[in-house]
Amino acid sequence: MFKTESGTNQLKQLSQACVKIVAGIEFGIQPFASMRGINIINGNAEMSSNLMAAKVKKHPKYDYRVVTSSNDECTLEFFQFIAGKSVSLGKSTWTINDAKRAGLTRNPTWQKFPMNMRFARALSNGVHFYTPDVFYGTPVYVEGEISGEFEVQTQESVEEPETPAPTPAPKQDPVEAEIVGDEPIDPLERVFTEISDLADEMGKSRDWFVSV
Questions:
Q1: What DSSP letter does each residue of 131-184 carry, written as one string?
Q2: Residue 159: how many other CB atoms lie within 10 Å
Q3: DSSP codes, 119-140
Q4: Which of 22, 94, 113, 145 is a good FRET partner for 124, with 20 to 30 A between their CA atoms?
Q5: Parallel, antiparallel, or unpaired: how do β-strands 85-95 and 44-47 relate?
Q6: pTM above 0.85, yes or no
Q7: Is the separation of the CB atoms in 144 and 150 below 8 Å?
Q8: Distance in angstroms (rounded) separating the CA atoms of residues 212 and 208
Q9: Would you state the pLDDT for residue 183?
Q10: Which tens digit of pLDDT belongs to each residue from 197-206?
């Protein structure tokens, strides 16, 4: 079960968790991802940009690619797979001027993570314009688009532990190959061979000696 915060109404938290999970089921999202990446604001779903991007990437019919991404502008191009070919549906761009018009540039999160914020808005607009059926036509927004609250997940560089060098195998003295000579011939078999050769020389059959 998901742990509730201390000092809050547990019944309210439980109902909110149920709504998140149900919304996630409608969108084909697992419960834990729904709890972490979906918020319900005034009846509308707010979703983390990572989760929204993953849904587009995972969809069998759609895809997107980043055309430009900087602190001033982000442009995404959306594609649809038709008859095995990738067809461009259009581009979605969000610039610093768009952020200013929306009154977002004073927000501390926008000031700290401008590239992430512009990507999120370009993605949200692109989904609304070009791929609405990814979420079955339900209006879905990125975090902060309705509530004004943001939670940005940045990728921190993680140093991989050094792989220890493999321990060299103990050196073994070379083993001289055993020289195996011709196997000894059975004396009785040698006699039969000599008799057979003699029979050939005399023009006799090889079993003539049996009747001798």
A1: -GGGGTT--EEETTSSS-----------PPPPPPPPPPPPP-PPPPPPP--PPP
A2: 5
A3: HHHHHHHHHHHH-GGGGTT--E
A4: 22
A5: unpaired
A6: no
A7: yes
A8: 7
A9: 52
A10: 656 666 666 5
